[in-house]
TrEMBL record:
One of its GO terms (biological process) is D-amino acid catabolic process. Residues 1-17 form the signal peptide. Pfam families: DAO (PF01266). InterPro entries: D-amino_acid_oxidase_CS, DAO, FAD-dep_OxRdtase. This is DAO domain-containing protein.
Length: 357
């Protein structure tokens, strides 16, 4: 019998007698709470043996496929085909290695698809551009996160909103504290300046209902169709913590790069735009620690942060790993594939002072 009192500060839940608090109501906190309940109900989630990022990707893909079959777009998940272009064949080959056998219909683009009168794009024939095609699931944050939250609430998980100053603050009250605070996960863990860095990103939501395929050029000039609009982006400004609004230069830069690929986008209307800071880290941190609250009570911390630009692609997979640590389940599937932990550096970085207001 599952008793629920998971706190997401996010959420609180009690699972198998453990009182669990999850800090963070982003995709990682919500996915971790979901995975804890999924595993508590059905322990035997298994996947083929892979590297750690591939395993996280596989487990996420499997969850998205399950949601797609059961709820379709109501879960914020969509099945979308599309193309990635790059002048670097090696970059595209690394995509094949990472997920070519996981996604559907993965293949290289042919010459007529890339160049000439029947081509999909507006590339000059003298470029050395290569391309791939595949079909996969997207999860749209603005729909996917509220969907997960609603499902968790229906299962009895309680949510509250407050700023947590330290992990110990919750350790006095809970047996397990999950640190899924994104960029600030590093700050709470004493792991900010050395390993964490904000990566500024911009997305522009446009009205282009005919656009049904995603298109990436080198992972920075992109469109992704979502349920009622299309996201166009982006920038990847590592270490940048401003400006925190979308600027005229951002829009000019993104639009001009994208219009070179698909001139029709000079005619689209902008619906909205936003700036976000990806939680950059040299590697995703999924780790367990025993800490002491007020020098007496021991409690467990499970860290799950630092997903950079891949929180949605890897999120449920890393959540399953974190949930196994929370529930003390066997970790044989992760043996030999988890990189050595990074050394901690708790110097407070400049970006913390600016962004943590
Ligand atoms: C422009 C852009 C494009 C992106 N595109 C993609 C993509 O195509 N694919 C992909 O997989 N990913 C993408 N990402 C990356 C993805 O968004 C991130 O990896 C993901 O959002 C990280 O999720 P998170 O839950 O770790 O962090 P967040 O979403 O930042 O959530 C952290 C949560 O912790 C809370 N919190 C923080 N500190 C405290 C505290 N002290 N007390 C209480 N609560 C606290 C915050 O309020 C928040 O709710 C993109 C990001 C951006 C900005």
């Amino acid at each position: 019998m599952l008793r629920l009192s998971l706190l997401l500060l996010g959420a609180f839940l009690t699972v198998n007698g453990l009182r669990v608090a999850v800090i963070g109501e982003g995709v990682i906190g919500l996915s971790t709470a979901t995975a804890i309940l999924d595993l508590a109900e059905k322990e035997n989630i298994t996947a083929p043996r892979l590297g750690n990022q591939q395993k996280y990707g596989y487990d996420t893909f499997e969850k998205l496929a399950t949601l797609w079959r059961e709820y379709g777009g109501l879960s914020g998940v969509q099945l979308v085909s599309g193309h990635i272009l790059s002048d670097s064949k090696a970059k595209l080959d690394s995509q094949r290695v990472a997920y070519g056998s996981l996604v559907y219909n993965y293949r290289d683009l042919t010459e007529p698809e890339l160049f000439g009168p029947t081509s999909l794009f507006d590339l000059p024939r003298n470029t050395t551009t290569h391309g791939i095609h595949y079909t996969a699931y997207t999860s749209e944050g603005l729909r996917f996160c509220p969907f997960l939250k609603k499902e968790l609430m229906a299962k009895g998980v309680r949510f509250t909103q407050r700023k947590i100053q330290s992990l110990e603050e919750l350790g006095a009250e809970f047996d397990v504290v999950v640190n899924a605070a994104g960029l600030f996960g590093g700050v709470l863990a004493g792991d900010d300046a050395g390993n964490m860095t904000p990566i500024r990103g911009v997305l522009i939501r446009v009205d282009a209902p005919w656009h049904k395929h995603f298109l990436y050029r080198d992972f920075s000039t992109i469109t992704i169709p979502v349920i009622d609009s299309v996201y166009m982006g982006t920038v990847k400004q590592e270490g940048a913590y401003g400006p925190s609004n979308v600027t005229f230069d951002d829009i000019q830069d993104i639009t001009s790069r994208y219009v070179e690929l698909q001139p029709s986008f000079k005619r689209v209307h902008m619906l909205s735009s936003f700036v976000g800071y990806r939680p950059g880290r040299k590697q995703v941190r999924v780790e367990k620690q025993i800490r002491e609250a007020h020098g007496t009570k021991k409690f467990t911390v499970v860290h799950n942060y630092g997903h950079g630009g891949n929180g949605f692609t890897l999120g449920y997979g890393s959540a399953v790993h974190a949930a196994r640590l929370v529930l003390d389940l066997p970790l044989t599937e992760y043996e030999g594939i988890i990189p050595e932990p990074l050394s901690m550096n708790s110097t407070v970085a400049d970006w913390v002072r600016v962004l943590d207001d």
